[in-house]
Amino acid sequence: MTDQLLERLKVDYPDFCFRRGRKFAFRPPRTIAVGPEEPDDALLLLHEMGHAILGHRDFKTDVGRIKMERAAWEKARELCDKYGVEYDEAVVERELDTYRDWLDQKSRCPDCGLTRFQTPDGEYRCPRCISIKQLS
Ligand SMILES: [Zn+2]
Ligand SMILES: [Zn+2]
């Protein structure tokens, strides 16, 4: 079902390397892992194409990663038009939600439950626990 799309992508993006994988993923700098058949496979594939075309690399902060996900979906929307794939907002929101949940859990302070902030080097700091530590 993605085969036809895949053949067109290979022709249009000869610089990218397409490999079968267990799930859809972009592996910088140029490899796109093509996951198994599923109802949303064409859209998921175009999303990974979005990462590849935008030249995404690992981002240090998780907020940066969410931005990167959004950008890749915006790119996927353009690609959907071009390749005649339905851009399903529900799928996009579902995928973004998994990142939001992951970020939410990761950013929660294990000591007090407050949402922590991330420093530019990627470390999490809890504003409440830092000020308590400074007082004691
Ligand atoms: Zn992504
Ligand atoms: Zn805390």
Task: Write structural notes for this entry.
It is a single chain. The chain is 54% helix and 11% strand. It is elongated. A hairpin with a 3-residue loop joins strand 2 (25-27) and strand 3. Helix 2 crosses helix 3 and helix 3 (62-83) packs antiparallel against helix 4 (89-107). The protein has one domain. It has 136 residues and is mainly alpha-helical. It contains 5 helices and 5 strands, in the order αβββαααββα. The N and C termini lie far apart (62 Å). The strands form 2 sheets. The protein has a 3-stranded mixed β-sheet with strand order 1-3-2, with helices on one face. The chain has helices spanning 3-12, 41-54, 62-83, 89-107, 127-135; strands spanning 17-20, 25-27, 31-34, 117-118, 124-125. It binds zinc ion (2 copies). Residues 109, 111-112, 114, 126, 128-129 line the site of one zinc ion.
Bound molecules: zinc ion
Task: Count the domains.
Answer: 1
Cα(first) to Cα(last) distance is 62 Å
- Indicate the overall shape: elongated
Radius of gyration: 18 Å
Judged by helices, strands and strand pairing, the structural class is mainly alpha
Please tally the β strands and state the result: 5
Which residues sit in consecutive blocks of at least 5 with pLDDT less than 50? none
Spatial strand sequence of the major β-sheet: 1-3-2
Largest β-sheet summary:
3 strands, mixed
Count, helices: 5
